[in-house]
Amino acid sequence: MSKYLISIVGPTAIGKTALSIKLATHFNTEIVSADSRQFFKEMQIGTAAPTADELSAAKHHFIHHKSIEDNYNVGAFEVDAITKLSELYQTHDVVIMVGGSGLYVDAVTKGLDEFPNVKPEIREQLNTALETKGLITLQEQLKELDLKTYNTIAIENPHRVIRALEVCIGSGKPYSSFLNKDKKQRQFKTISIGLTADREIIYNRINSRVDIMVKEGLLEEAKALIPKQHLNALNTVGYKELFNYFNGEWTLDFAISEIKKNTRRFAKRQLTWFKKNKDTFWFDYQTNVKEIIATIERNIKS
């Protein structure tokens, strides 16, 4: 196998974008983004998408190519990303992928788990239950039907809860029973590079990034999206908290503190997800890029 995908993972604000550009420059190649919120063109500041200078430093794919009104999910991304990689491997032996969305990274490197078809009315019923009875009721239902999934998914995310429940109800089997089956074969070898740091450093970097976002116009960006705040894409840290501020439910200072807190929680979940891959080569975020390149090239040669 002579084609390689260098997958850069790690918690938010750790420096993945900067590393991806350095690696793309070294290998004279292009970058595929696997950050599920950077797909949307209306969400630039709040998703810490690459700047214009960064985008011009290396060719990127799957940055701001969709609208928040588009029905775009991880399954569609898997198809699009594999198609794009096939194109890129016509002229490159190495391609860089970067992103903090663990499920989207795994969709490319391993393929998605296969789930049974579920009648659409089941999801409709669950959405109605969410509106009338609240998320806690659905969480309790999932706890009864599939304790393993209840303990492992982002239980505060209603879309994740509903997805797991509809599979449980529609199939009569736990959602978790469909996970981690045989994965799809890929025509490339993945070399996974992880960036990390002490938890205090990660949290301080997150707090600083949020402050920078606010200075760069995050409030104005979120305010313009108020009419569309019901869309799934905007159920995202950095936006949903500001909607509570604009709707008069929170003060601005409290909303910003919640963005920082929820981003820190997200970073913790990211590390938990990425640490499951025992083949990842982990580096401190300040490691010289030459050391990382040496590790990659050793693996390619071997």
Automatic annotation (TrEMBL):
The record marks S101, R123 as: Interaction with substrate tRNA. Keywords: ATP-binding, Magnesium, Nucleotide-binding, Transferase, tRNA processing. Its EC number is 2.5.1.75. It catalyses: adenosine(37) in tRNA + dimethylallyl diphosphate = N(6)-dimethylallyladenosine(37) in tRNA + diphosphate. ATP binds at G10, P11, T12, A13, I14, G15, K16, T17. Its cofactor is Mg(2+). SUPFAM superfamilies: P-loop containing nucleoside triphosphate hydrolases. Substrate binds at T12, A13, I14, G15, K16, T17. It is an enzyme of class 2 (transferase). It comes from the Bacteria. Transmembrane segments: none annotated. The keyword ATP-binding applies. Residues 35-38 are annotated as: Interaction with substrate tRNA. Pfam families: IPPT (PF01715). Catalyzes the transfer of a dimethylallyl group onto the adenine at position 37 in tRNAs that read codons beginning with uridine, leading to the formation of N6-(dimethylallyl)adenosine (i(6)A). Monomer. Belongs to the IPP transferase family. This is tRNA dimethylallyltransferase. It comes from Gaetbulibacter jejuensis.
